[in-house]
Write a structure and sequence with these properties.
This protein is 29% helix and 25% strand. By secondary structure, the chain is of the alpha/beta class.
Length: 206
């Protein structure tokens, strides 16, 4: 099994990723601001994802990096992403999987991001702008990245057909997607290289 550097593992999507990593026997280096319940296989690093030293410590000796970090209107992703790219290059780690938002997928009818068009149902774009900057940094980094881009996240099971697609959303009639389905896709990307170098839309047909 592998050693995974995990960021955002205490969030509602990240905790599901953490659970799956442990169930599959991976060792996890988890950066967290507050200590969580001790779990076998988890090496907690107490710190902040915008702190260079904490990011370096988390990434060191890892085989893969996974981030389920959200954005808090303080451009946390724009700050974190250059730090994790630098750390990965320093320690010769090439593979990173992150959870973004469907707003940064390419729109169907233009070269714009979805959040820049009427295709997106969101009226506030602050979070999407932060996610877009993170995507652009990863795209230009030379790393083997995958950004999983869900529509509205729900804690319940998904209803309807789950659609996974590269670069664009697979339907113009999208519905909500379960955090569990997103976590499952993160795990699949650890062993399936089909989505390397891509934004990956995940949604349901509404």
């Amino acid at each position: 099994m592998s050693t995974i550097a995990l960021f955002g593992g205490s969030g509602r999507t990240g905790e599901r990723v953490l659970e799956r990593l442990l169930n599959q026997g991976h060792d996890v280096k988890l950066l967290t601001r507050h200590s969580m319940d001790s779990k076998e296989g988890v090496n907690e690093i107490i710190g902040d994802a915008t702190d260079q030293a904490a990011v370096l410590e988390t990434v060191q000796s890892a085989d893969f990096v996974i981030s389920a970090l959200g954005t808090d209107k303080q451009n946390v992703l724009s700050t974190f992403t250059p730090l994790v790219i630098e750390a990965m290059k320093q320690f010769n780690i090439t593979r990173i999987i992150t959870v973004g938002t469907a707003g940064i997928l390419q729109a169907h009818d233009s070269d714009n991001y979805r959040f820049e068009t009427k295709e997106s149902k969101r009226t506030m774009t602050t979070a999407a702008e932060d996610h877009a900057r993170a995507y652009e940094l990863l795209r230009d980094s030379g790393l083997s990245f995958t950004i999983i881009c869900p529509t509205q996240l729900i804690d319940e099971q998904s209803t309807g057909e789950i659609i996974v697609s590269k670069e664009v959303l697979g339907t113009k009639h999208s519905g909500p997607i379960s955090r569990d389905d997103v976590a499952d896709l993160v795990m699949a990307c650890l062993t399936d290289d089909d989505y390397v170098g891509h934004r990956v839309g995940i949604t349901t047909e509404s």
